[in-house]
Amino acid sequence: MFKPKATDYQSKELISEFRDVPHFSKQEIYDFYCRKEPELNDGTLSWRIHYLKQRGIIQSIGRGIYTISVKPHYSPDISLRLIRLSRILNKVWSDINYCAWSTEWLNSFTRHQLQSFFTVLEIEKELMEDVFECLFYEYNLRVYMKPDKDIMDRYVAFENAILVMPLISRSPDQIISYKKQKVYVPTLEKILVDSFSDEKTHYAIQGELSYMFEHAIETYNINFTRLLSYSRRRGKEEQVKQFLKHELGDLLNGVLK
User: Fold this and answer.
1) What pLDDT digit, counting tens, does each position of 62-115 carry?
2) To 10 degrees, what angle do helices 224-233 and 188-197 make?
3) In the CATH hierarchy, which top-level class contains the domain 80-248?
């Protein structure tokens, strides 16, 4: 946990004030400081919140909603398979936009462990066919492009295959480096939304969604503004909101507007 310095704007007191609550608002931070600084203005408050975020004392989980920084950022282990795939993509297309991950990562969040896995490779729509043909014909990889349910049931999960899927614009991703090789992978918010939204691809964990979301939220820092923004681009914002309110309403009280 972060150990604040004495000069970090009453950081020790602020941590003590909010450590036992799941989240708190900008207004609550204002009220906290106003006990000793009744003349505190909004500009000073905004700068102070920025300072606390930069120092890792608080984290933003939504618009005007914060939490004490005790939860880690989700950073999955990268397999040699993903590293090799990334190298191929960067070798053939130097400026390609992509995002790749393995469904094996889902086992960190589910009660019943998946026994077979596949790689999801999201690519700009106009390059999907070129990427598919390159991986299939030139590198002899088990690869499918936007497979239907029948293909998913018959082949994909049993072959440790690669699924080439369209990359949604402004998908939240992160970079993980391995020996100077950059691998673009999804954030946890994207993994959660994709698992919820694409029932055909992620059919194996549909019965685990409530547990999966709860475990992810309790274990890692989740930015709900990012999560809902991406849900909106997938056309699933209201469905995701209703799911979260129904399944995790007590845990997220005050976060979802």
Assistant:
1) 888 998 877 788 999 999 999 999 999 999 998 899 999 999 999 999 999 888
2) 40
3) alpha beta
Helix (H) or strand (E) holding 84: helix 80-92
E-strand ranges in the chain read 24-25, 58-62, 65-68, 98-102, 119-123, 143-145, 162-166, 173-178, 181-186
Kindly list the distances between the CA atom of residue 125 and the CA atoms of 56, 92, 146, 155, in Å, as whole numbers in the listed order: 37, 16, 11, 23
Which residues lie below 8 Å from residue 234, measured CB to CB, with a gap of 6+?
Answer: 168, 193, 194, 197
Query: Cβ(229)–Cβ(182) under 8 Å?
Result: no
Contacts of 76 (CB under 8 A, 6+ apart): 101, 105, 108, 176, 185
Per-residue pLDDT tens digits for 176-219: 998 888 999 999 999 999 999 999 899 889 999 999 999 998 88
Instruction: Specify the fold of 11-68.
Output: Arc Repressor Mutant, subunit A (1.10.10)
d(CA 181, CA 184): 10
Between β-strands 162-166 and 143-145, what pairing exists: parallel, antiparallel or unpaired? parallel
Give the start-to-end residue ranges of the domains of the chain.
11-68, 80-248
CA distances from 241 to 40, 75, 186, 214 (A): 35, 25, 20, 14
59 CB contacts (<8 Å, ≥6 apart)? 53, 66, 67, 68, 69, 71, 221
The torsion angles phi and psi of 193, rounded to 5 degrees, stand at -65, -40
* Amino acid found at 79: S
Both tokens of residue 122? 């999201």
Q: Are strands 58-62 and 173-178 parallel, antiparallel or unpaired?
A: unpaired
Q: Say if strands 24-25 and 65-68 run parallel, antiparallel, or are unpaired.
A: antiparallel
